[in-house]
Amino acid sequence: MTIQNTSSAVMSQRRSPPRALDYFPTPPWATRALLEHVNIRGVSAGMGGGEIPWSELTVWEPACGEGHMARVLAERFGRVVVSDVFDYGIGAAVHDFLGVNDLAGSPAPVERPHFVITNPPFSAGQQFIEHALDIATMGVAMLVRTAFLESGERYDLFQRFPPRFVAQFSGRVPMVMGRLDAAASSATAYCWIFWKAPACGIFGGGRSTSLLWIPPDARARLERPGDYPDQTEGGLL
Ligand SMILES: C[S@@+](CC[C@H](N)C(=O)[O-])C[C@H]1O[C@@H](n2cnc3c(N)ncnc32)[C@H](O)[C@@H]1O
Question: With a 6 A CB cut-off, is 71 part of the ligand 1 pocket?
Fold first, then answer.
């Protein structure tokens, strides 16, 4: 399914996922911060490749939940493919991005997207990144807890695949399990990690990672009316 840029207020009936799926919806402003502060662009292959217009770029959001990140991606990308292992009732393809629980064997909704962008389940962040880097032809962006940068296991990942950018939020991104809540608070720090896809020779090279800071006023600048579900009418969507 390809998502449209529609308000969350008009989405369908809500379904609750199992806790193990780590459903933490992303406030829309945090996805706009990626698009504004990280230099994501499509470049055509070949010598001196020109910039590809956004309208011709495909992004796959493979853990889309109720589509809070995907709808923001649709503000920029021409095509946003959405899927999740759980059926949240928004019409997204039901597909296990890691293929391990895919008893029904539902096929990937897209084979080689230009970009893969998501907020992966915390329990499987590294597997999501490795698979995304395998299939994306231009780039991969993942929203993770900043603590994800630690650990010996991920040291190896970052050595093999050095990110191009780490964009650290200066302010907190309040994310809570199971719901998008404008009034939520958080003690957890988050960052975006962006890789240029290894498959894309034109991006190639460059083993160094640039550290960026997303300014503290990002939320105030990037929130829009309709970003949060209307919780007064008995449903989150
Ligand atoms: C942190 S939430 C992110 C939701 C959404 N991307 C957003 O930002 O609003 C993680 C999502 O991963 C999904 N998920 C967990 N395991 C998955 C898998 N193996 N394949 C696809 N989706 C998975 C969960 O159902 C959940 O929607």
Answer: no
Beta-strand pair 190-196/210-214? unpaired
Return d(Cα 6, Cα 11) in angstroms, integer. 8
Domains of the chain, residue spans: 24-224
In order along its 237 residues, the chain shows pLDDT tens digits of 565 444 333 344 567 888 889 999 999 999 999 999 998 888 776 666 788 999 999 999 999 999 999 999 999 999 999 999 999 999 999 999 998 655 656 889 999 999 999 999 998 999 999 999 999 999 999 999 999 999 998 999 999 999 999 999 999 999 999 999 999 988 999 999 999 986 544 444 457 899 999 999 999 999 999 999 875 443 333
Q: CATH classification of 24-224, choosing from 3.30.479.20, 3.40.50.150, 3.40.50.10420, 3.20.20.80?
A: 3.40.50.150
- The beta strands (E) that lie in the chain are given as 42-43, 51-52, 58-61, 79-84, 93-94, 115-118, 139-145, 165-169, 190-196, 210-214
Q: Closest ligand 1 atom to the C-alpha of 122?
A: 1
Count Cβ atoms below 10 Å from residue 212 Cβ, excluding itself: 15
pTM: 0.89
Atom of ligand 1 nearest to the CA of 65: 27
**CA-based end-to-end distance of the chain:** 19
Distance 63 CA to ligand 1 centre (A): 4
